[in-house]
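Hi R.,

Quick one: here's the Outer membrane protein TolC sequence you asked about.
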Amino acid sequence: MNCLTTHLGRFGVYPAVVAVILLLFGCVTPDYWYGDQPLYTPEGGDMGDSPVEEQVSLPTRQPTPLPTAEDGKIAIFIEDAVFLCLQQNPELLVERYNPMIALSFEQIERGRYDPEIFGELQYLDETATEVSRSTRERFSVEGRDVNATAGVRQQLPTGTEIEATFGGKRSISNRTPEQQDFRVGLTLTQSLLKGFGPATNLADIRLAELDSRASYYQLRGFIETLVSEVEIGYWQYVFAEQGIAIFERSLEVARKQLAEVENRIEVGVIPKNAAAAARTEVARRQQALIEARSIHAERRLRLMRLLNVTGSDRFSLQLITRSSPQTATAPLDDLSEHVQLAMKLRADLGEAGLQQKKQELEVVRTRNGLLPKLDFFIDIGKTGYAESFRGAVSDLENDSYDLLTGLRFSSYLDNRSARGRHQAATVSRAQAAAAVDNLKSLIAYDVLAAANEVNRAEKKIEASRVTRMLQEQTLEAEQERFAVGNVTSLLVAQAQRDLLVSQLDEVEAKVDYRIALVRFFLAEGSLLERRGIKLDSALAGPGTPVL
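And here's the predicted structure, written out as tokens:
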């Protein structure tokens, strides 16, 4: 493109006014170039402010002391277990760094539009020999030049680049008088096709913001999973704890039965081989008790790991549960409401929605990349000349100005790279939309399946209670028949074994019901709200989930 250079007549103060307006306009940060467009949340909910603050500190684990131990035992409620886990779990501390990392990338993208100041200082010392064209006489030339330039430049989300400069030059030579010049200039470059408009140029910032909010959903999902693991681990520990008590009572009953059989053998009421079944039952109960204690120890260690219990006594420290699994809850009536609630609260659906929004922004950006590059530029300047710096500045009031303006064009002939990126972005957008629809279907299935498990576990509680009562009556009847000699000790042992199984089934049914509720609330996405846990805005920093 040809450029037009001209000297204009007197402009008065207009160039200065234009320069001031453009400089003030250029210092505006891109934070307010677009309206408060609500980001995607499930079912169109508005997330509001960013879940992470712009100024954050490194997250720290706040040590929370365990309840006072008595005789190496600590009594703990399920609420205590959840609180201690949120305060001290090291995996949660690691995850809390992710929102901070995502936020830093957001600041990096915003920094592209920060004003930049620059300066340059040059010094040239030259000694040369030249030949006069007219006289062919050789003469020596000595000169020194000092050139200083400073200014400010900024890119704007509109596709505009503004640069304002001022600088002076001092030239000293043994062949010419000293000369100084001072120039003030303003350069503006505006993209007209590719790179034009905030919608395209703010895409990277918007993508970084979406990543920041996605990190919030990821952190929320991790905390939900962590809380569910703690509660499930607690109830499994309760089952192991009560299972040991049941096995110990069962072993005591088996030993009493063996003692009674041996007494009757001594008096000759029953033959000696009648004690074999009773001894076998005692051995079985001892074996089962060993297995139960092993399971109890494993679940204790797992729960203590989730609570991050440290110290030299952590291997010998015993946890005593104080929460009972016999807590009644409201029945699950209208499942459609629970499904709708899951569509609003599920963290994975929120994150998937943000991914869909990111793909939409990619389509906008790659569509603009299909256009050719066409830039309009203009450079306005004014220069003063004199033998002194002050005189050069004063000479700016003269009538001469310089203006350089024109168009700059470039384009790839086939532009296959841009077309390929746009095609990939378009397909990825359709894929993200399909993924959201599929996830909604899976969430509805998860809620309904979890609700079915809750109903099954709730009904099993009453059924197992009735079974246990009937087994107690059966054992009592077998013991009475054994006392009068109508049955052998083998039938009594079988009745004891059946009672043991029914007792374990009853406790397991109660624990399974509590675990099923936890998993239902997790599928619904309401576990944190139902436990009174709120993720505050400073979660990425030193703050912690609020209970």
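The domain at 42-50+61-108+205-359+424-530 is CATH 1.20.1600.10 (Outer membrane efflux proteins (OEP)).

Cheers,
M.
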